């Protein structure tokens, strides 16, 4: 519900909170040592500390298992080399949860603190979307971290994918908030905008669009509610989370486009939030598993046949 309200304001604001909770606090809580939890969780929870999540790379997004970032074991710790891209909160983070491969070919998680020699960040500018959030590149060049900074309770892709499931659940709720924001704005606009001597909300085609929006928003909320109940019971499956993320983001994007249509030319100016939400949702549709990737995840679950890489 918090994510729904935050994204009703802006997707970038909700995403900053999603990263902090689902992708930084969660792996430390679920995979970290007691010392790591004591060091980082209180400050991250209060907001005094900021974190980021380093998984995506310039050449590997939907295929994280092919990552190139490496962690080489040395006396007293590990040396990281590689690059992560499209990282929210990257340049302002006090700690980065970074995923890298060791010599055994397995993926592990590491906590890299801001200011560590060999660790640098570069912000990405010129974004048309998610302008309210900071997006960065993380670079590691012979970056040595102590052995105590490795997450001890996870190995393999199960680690980062577990974090993505947390984030995707929040995204499914957040997308509903964006959809509601544009619906509510458009509803009020349709009641006030006069054409042919009466509000455009009195026209059948406009009412059809508004009814579609509120119906789909309600269905998406019910999907999230049931998924949350399953999550509380410990029975929610990753494929169900993929279904919710894919459906709700597509619904929100369709809602924003329909709202822009109702507002006409007014829909493209920043006096109204419609186009901002629409551009943000284009990014939400891509990150944490693209729309198509989630189709394949759900498709494999219902058919038992793997369409990845074909």
Q: Please tell me what the overall shape is.
A: elongated
- What is the H/E string? HHHEEEEEEEHEEHHHH
First-residue to last-residue Cα separation: 38 Å
Helical content stands at 40-55%
Outline the structure in words.
This protein has 310 residues and is of the alpha+beta class. 51% of the residues lie in helices and 18% in strands. It is built from 8 helices and 9 strands. The protein has helices at 2-9, 11-31, 34-46, 158-192, 204-233, 238-263, 274-284, 291-303; strands at residues 51-54, 70-74, 77-88, 95-101, 107-113, 119-123, 135-146, 194-195, 198-199. The protein has a 4-stranded antiparallel β-sheet, with helices on one face. It has a 3-stranded mixed β-sheet with strand order 1-4-5, with helices on one face. The model has no long low-confidence stretch (mean pLDDT 95).
Brief descriptors of the model:
310 residues, single chain, elongated, 18% strand, alpha+beta
